[in-house]
Design brief:
- The structure holds 2 protein chains of 2 kinds.
- By secondary structure, chain A is an all-alpha fold.
- Chain A folds into 2 domains: 4-88, NADH-ubiquinone/plastoquinone oxidoreductase chain 6, subunit NuoJ (Four Helix Bundle (Hemerythrin (Met), subunit A), Up-down Bundle), CATH 1.20.120.1200; 126-168, no CATH class.
- Chain A has 6 helices and no strands.
- In chain A, helix 1 (4-26) runs antiparallel to helix 2 and helix 2 (30-50) packs antiparallel against helix 3.
- The radius of gyration of chain A is 20 Å and the shape is globular.
- The mean pLDDT of chain A is 87.
- By secondary structure, chain B is an all-alpha fold.
- Chain B has a single domain, classed as Helix Hairpins (Orthogonal Bundle), CATH 1.10.287.
- In chain B, helix 1 packs antiparallel against helix 2 and helix 2 runs antiparallel to helix 3 (60-90).
- The model of chain B has no long low-confidence stretch (mean pLDDT 88).
- Classes of the chains: A mainly alpha, B mainly alpha.
Chain lengths: 168, 103
């Protein structure tokens, strides 16, 4: 039995995820779409906090909301006039998109509703020390190698971004 | 009333479907990238929810999401660099207009 507070919190988070993600793909102004994406990402971070993963929620806010959305806003301001509306969709294209999305929702929803029914088990939120040891350890179920691979990936990404975007 | 695993998976499913819809219908490259972010984010939610509900003691889903966030950040940065470069060459980031690879 969950407390009333957590259920209210859950309803707010789920509603904002659904509403803002629908708005993010239907907004005509591109800057508004980026703002709705930001709200969706915040709601996701709140979901992580509610599921007892505070570290993950903090990473979500710092990397997504603090980094990626700012990058989006810069790119939008560099490449388009922010007041412009995108032109109206052709009905054929909208129909294709709706069919694809609804088919996916139907298949996924059917598969989920017929198979998943687990209730929320109790869990201790993992402490910072355990997260650090898991991220930096070399033993069983510890993640030093992927961590280093990601660092090399980020370095390659920095160099690639500079090489692609610099002025020739 | 109890919150079961479906209560968390259904919003993620809706988010993913929004991403698919936007990916198909949008014409602006940055809007397509935004739809892509929505899809990646929905998948991240799924990893965390399955980890939390089915294997509450272990941390695999959490770390997978952590690395997925890092890779999504790298991918977005590169994609935006490419988009800025295309804008410089073609003065446009509409996917229907960009039909030549070489300018």
């Amino acid at each position: 039995m969950d407390s009333v507070g957590s259920i209210i919190m859950y309803v707010i988070i789920a509603l904002s995820i659904v509403i803002f993600s629908v708005l993010a793909v239907t907004a005509r102004k591109i800057l508004r779409a980026a703002t709705y994406l930001l709200f969706t990402l915040f709601a996701t971070a709140a979901l992580y906090f509610q599921l007892d993963y505070p570290f993950l929620g903090a990473v979500q806010i710092a990397v997504y909301a603090g980094g990626i959305v700012v990058l989006f806003v810069f790119a939008i301001l560099l490449t388009s006039n922010p007041g412009d509306n995108s032109e109206k969709l052709e009905s054929k294209k909208r129909f294709t998109g709706l069919v694809a999305a609804l088919a996916m929702a139907l298949v996924g929803g059917y598969a989920l509703c017929t198979r998943c029914a687990a209730l929320l088990p109790d869990m201790q939120s993992a402490g910072m020390q355990k997260i650090g040891e898991t991220l930096m350890g070399t033993g069983y179920q510890q993640y030093l190698l992927p961590f280093e691979a990601v660092s090399v990936l980020l370095l390659a990404c920095i160099i690639g971004g500079i090489v692609i975007a610099r002025k020739r | 009333m109890d919150l079961n695993i479906l209560c968390y998976l259904i919003p993620a499913l809706i988010m993913f479907c929004c991403g698919v819809y936007g990916f198909i219908t949008r014409k602006n490259m940055i809007a397509i990238l935004i739809s892509l972010e929505l899809m990646l984010n929905a998948v991240d939610i799924n990893f965390v929810v399955f980890n939390r509900f089915l294997f509450p003691g272990s941390m695999e889903g959490m770390f997978f999401t952590l690395f997925a966030i890092a890779i999504a950040a790298a991918e977005t940065a590169l994609a935006i660099a490419i988009i800025v470069n295309i804008f410089r060459a073609a003065k446009n980031i509409d996917v229907r207009e960009i039909t030549k690879m070489k300018f």
